[in-house]
Amino acid sequence: MKKKIIGALLSVAMVTSALVGCGSAAAPAAEAPAAEAPAETAEEAPAAEAEAPAEAPAAGGKVGVSMPTKDLQRWNQDGDNMKKQLEEAGYEVDLQYASNDIPTQVSQIENMISAGDKVLVIAPIEGDSLGTVLQQAKEAGVAVIAYDRLIMASDAVNYYATFDNKLVGTKQGQYIEEKLDLKNQKGPFNLEIFTGDPGDNNARFFYGGAMEVLQPYIDSGVLVVKSGQVEFDKVATPGWATEAAQSRMDAIISANYADGTKLDAVLCSNDSTALGAINSLQANYAGSHDNWPIVTGQDCDKPNVKLMLDNGKQSMSIFKDTRDLAAQTVKMVDAIMKGGEAPVNDTESYDNGVIKVPSYLCEPVFADADNYKTLLIDSGYYTEDDLK
Predict the structure, then answer these.
(1) Which one has a higher pLDDT value, 130 or 4?
(2) Domain residue limits, the chain
């Protein structure tokens, strides 16, 4: 990464959501529009261009964006938003999806380094799988921004752009706390827990935030986990896979709720695990129970929002407006490309086992059937037709 240049101006063209902002005091107080100066460079006379080596097709330089998969809706949105906003800021963008295959992601990143990309924005498939290729990036002077998922076990990570992942879990736990009125009720209420992939560092933050809220109620007996599966390693879902969550819920219902025992809440860390739990509940639970449990989620994927609107089969989902995260990441890229330091608002929370990675954390909010229209429709994130 280029050394800091004192007094460097940070500028970028970005659009932020009026509802879920990433802006903070960490960003400069005044910003000049990006892409104007690069545009002038692109319009230089042919004679001047002939006197110097050819510039990259986009005057701002080349940026590599590595996303883990196209199989989940949110990564498609992240990739599209990133590419659009980086191009608007004057950069050439190499966007690649790795089909959830680690060797593919490593190979794609190697190609980005060889192609002369100056900054890499990487959402890793597994947080600790990129050490060797990132060392290549460091030796080549390529800056690395971990995107949404922290890259572990490497000192070649310069920055981290994400949402406040612990707060995601906290809000999920608080939702269950409020809806079951745990502060005032003695219970017992039955709870089951589904979190994410054990190789995704975010999954531990989601779990930790939720359990800070819920664990005291488990300890006091107000909440009961009849399956006995509470520890992270027991409730993790490999690959965040819907099928894995559904299979595990099938087994939990068969062993603990087939006799008519009521299930009051299912803590699911994201929408793909929630979808698996709901599929199982519809097949194995709904026919013999009058109640439907509270089910949490995250990402506001279209099928899950539809389930929120379908008699509350999913109760809520954490909304992380990826347009805002993309906009903040563009700010960070722009600062690095101009020789400065990227804006951050957290320097202590995210330790990847080697270094504490300077981070920018955007704030998530929860969506449910009561506020989804304001958050998702009125903001332009979805259309009404998307949710029919």
Answers:
(1) 130
(2) 36-41+57-157+321-362, 165-319
